Each structure stands twice: as C-alpha cells, then as structure tokens.
Amino acid sequence: MSTIGLLAGGGRFPLLLAESARRAGHRVVATGFVRQTSPELEQAVDALTWVKLGEFGKIAAALKQGGATEVVMLGGVAKVRFFRDAWLDAAGLKILAQVAVRSDDNLLRAIARWFEEQGLPVVDPAPLLADRVAPEGVLGKRAPSEDEWRDARYGLELARGIGRLDLGQTVVVKDGVALAVEALEGTDACVRRGGGLAEGAVVAKAVKPQQDRRFDLPAVGPDTVEVMREVKARVLAVEAGATLVMDREEMVRRADRAGIALVGVR
C-alpha cells in the first residue's frame, strides 16, 4: 500500500480520485486551497492540510509529513485567482520566476519540476480514474444530427488547434463557424459566451496535442450540461479515451432530460 499525495483544486474530481485510490488500498494525504477546494474532501482522505494558493513550501511539508511518495495534481484552480490573490511564499516566488510565458502548461510544468526537486514526483492521475474516462460513441439517448456531427468534428479540430497554442481546451461551434474559444475565463464562461450567440451550438473539448497527462486533463460533468442547457446548446463532443467524465450517470440523465447529445470522438 502506497501513500499518494493529492494537491487538490476545486470541483469533485479530487473527491473521486481519493475514493478510487482508497478503494484500491492506497492512503491519501491531501492539501486543499482555502475557498477553492471542497470541504467534503476532509472526509474522503486520511489527512488534509488547508493552504493558501501559492504556499508551496507548506504543501510539500504537509505531504512529506503524511508519508506521500508521489503527488497527483487534480481539480480546477482559476488562473485569474493565481494572479489576483495568490499568497506566494519563497518557493512560489522561485517557481514563478522560472516561467517567462505564464501559460497554464508552463506554470504547471514549473510547479511539477519544483515538487520533483523536493522528492515528490508528480504522476498521471488517469490510472486511478480509468473508469471515469469518456468512451467512444453516443453516451445518452440522443445522437447528433448529420450537421451536428460535422460541427462536432470541426470543433474538436479547432480545440486541438487552440491547444497547440496552449490557450484552452474548449470551442463552441455552430454551422461551421467558431463562436467562442476558451482562454483565461474557463470552460463554463466560454460555453455561455459562445452559446449565447446562437441557439443549438456544439461544444467541443479536446486534449491539447502536447498535453502533459499529469495535469489539466479535460473534464466534463453534470455542471457542464447545466451550462449548456442555459444557453440551449445541443451537443457536447469530447475526446474519447482522454476526457474525464464526472458523475457520468447523472450527467447523462440531465443531458437526456434537456435533449442534449453527448458523444465521445477519437
């Protein structure tokens, strides 16, 4: 039995990973960000230390004290918060100084390098969440129309394109026209912005071609469907075999009720 260190951001994926890891016989010691990580995590792990965003020295010390031999980084952290209210300690300042272009991937790789220097290698969380990866094909009752399939494939192509530029993972498309691409604002805001321009839009989400699988894998869930329902988007297309799906049964149930097609595409 190993001890996994979990650097937990927001959302439910840190909870799901902790549950899966403990079912597999691992111990899980975690750190959570104040006002970002769900308080529910405390009941799902063996130990939890609350930290402010940017307190990397405190994070490493807590994980080492808990016996962690490797680290998983999982859960969303709004990039805007990192620049607005991060409480950078000496380690945080060192990490930031090493990043000239502060894109998501560059920041995350710098953080991962620093943890490895502390003897805490950052590993891919996907093996612990294998049952939560999107399969290929239609997930719910409704299949896309021929035009929607065309937009879905085009949207995934565009999503990979913006991924190469390290901008984001999500694109909103309608009738072969890109309505919105994800940048700093995140997936939900991108969907609202693009979907608000035209009813019946297709939302596509893909892994960045150069994606480091240790962090920032694309993820969708019931909340994604709710945002799509608000703007009357009609299809969610994700990259099969690479996109994490949170609470799949609930997500499919909400999509079916809203008439939204869910598809995994390779």
TrEMBL record:
LpxI C-terminal domain ranges (all copies): 135-263
Pfam families: LpxI_C, LpxI_N
Residue stretches making up the LpxI N-terminal domain: 4-131
Domain of life: Bacteria
InterPro entries tied to this protein: LpxI, LpxI_C, LpxI_C_sf, LpxI_N
Gene3D superfamilies assigned: 3.40.140.80, 3.40.50.20
Designated name of the protein: DUF1009 domain-containing protein
Species: Anaeromyxobacter diazotrophicus
Lineage: Bacteria, Pseudomonadati, Myxococcota, Myxococcia, Myxococcales
